[in-house]
Small, acid-soluble spore protein, alpha/beta type (Desulfofundulus thermobenzoicus), 72 residues
Amino acid sequence: MDRAARARDELKWETARELGLDDDLSNPGDQLTVREAGKIGGNMVRKLVKAGEEALAEEGNLAAETKGPVQE
């Protein structure tokens, strides 16, 4: 499993724990309902979007700091 796949798997388990659905994931014989899978997936997307927005904001802050004051 590559690094990105491990990170997605960790995010899935973290999100399932937060929603109280990790017990459903831990039993291979049990199946998630479509609703449960949607809750996990939807919350994963929210977290990824938030992380992306934070990274872009940080990138913008760094770029503004390195440019310095505008000279006329």
